[in-house]
Protein: Coproporphyrinogen-III oxidase
Amino acid sequence: MPDDAPRFIAKYALEAVPRYTSYPPATKFHGKVGLADWQRWMTQQDKNPALSIYVHIPFCKSMCWYCGCHTTIPNAHRRVEHYLAALDIDIRRRAESAPPDGRVCHIHFGGGSPDMLKPEEFRAVMQQIRASFNVAPDAEIAVELDPRGLDSELCQAMAQTGVNRASLGVQDISHEVQKLIHRIQPLEIVQAAADKLRAVGISAINMDMMYGLPAQSVARVCETANAIAGMGADRVSVFGYAHVPWFKKHQRAIPEERLPGAAERFDQMLAANHTLSEAGYERIGFDHFARPADPLARAARDGSLRRNFQGYTTDPSTILIGLGASAISECPQGYVQTEPNPVRYANAVTSNADMIVRGVGRSMAQQAVASRIANLLCQFETEVEPGDPVDLAKDMLAEALVRIDDGRITLTEAGRPYVRNLAARIDPAFRSTTEQHSVAV
Ligand code: SF4
Structure:
């Protein structure tokens, strides 16, 4: 947004709205949906669709206090082994219910930290995926990694099994901030991790950074964004820290008095955007950046950009198969989520019980809303529908945050930070709920 544009901190930036990585949002998931629903939905798909796979590795070496992920710190590696034995069974079973001639175009390993796996364990997971599914030769295979302690042997194993994109968590390069979030990670460690990945041919590198962390300032956010650009990241994700200590108990260790206020937080978000744009990145949606030649930037330009649980993506698949604890699977008919506790997940899988604990079906009308919200989040515009409330975005129009022409509503440059607020206004379910979500900015 332009530097001199008015800011709507209290009215929009602090409004609690869904992140809309799914529609209906995950807050609508309930326990009456199970594996049988997923299997039935799979029989309603085309015979040979593009498929996407997400593999969750719910383990980390130590807990970062800002963490909002489903992860645990194992006290012995045999817990990881027990989990992987169940994951192996899960991969085979889920492949049996997938469309028979589906082709896997995207595989994403997230966590937790997938680098908690030993090289031979990573190879075994990839081997089982390739044996169970038809993986396209040009599939994108991406892995989220903790740069601390990333070893060359694992990088080698990942490259040999087809990994071609890696995502490194940077967050903030200041030692003071790192101490307060319990993640000490000198810049040289991130650079060394990127070097190891590039040395084995994994040359597409994403980096994540955050704003709104304790002791962060505009200057520190700019230094981090510049350092990331200097390390040659192809994509950068810029996430606002969501402080929810009542939900994520380890966040109680974050000193609240050191958290930036809402206006400062907004300035940090703008500073990250500005610094990355100056460094030559193109803005993708509301929280991603990419080098102009990166496929994500090309997708944003040609209108094929999509959004899923990993954020913005080039992945065109309408079927996402989530494997492992807490993983969410998606198809046009709905979503299912597996048991989030790794031990309970493993026990359910090995005892042949239903490891799906919640989900939600999606009607045709909800699929249409999902598509409109996706257009907004990816292209910053969508069509106005006859069923929309007559005062849809009336305030945002008066504030010059949106404009309506030829039956389409479009966010202006000044309105883009508030895209989730506009999405909530076209979401018929949002207006009738009082659920808590993260703040919009
Ligand atoms: S490495 Fe990532 S997943 Fe693990 S605790 Fe830190 S932020 Fe959470």
In short: The mean pLDDT is 94. The first strand starts at residue 50 and ends at 57. The chain has two domains: 1-24+363-441, 27-361. The longest helix spans residues 77-97.
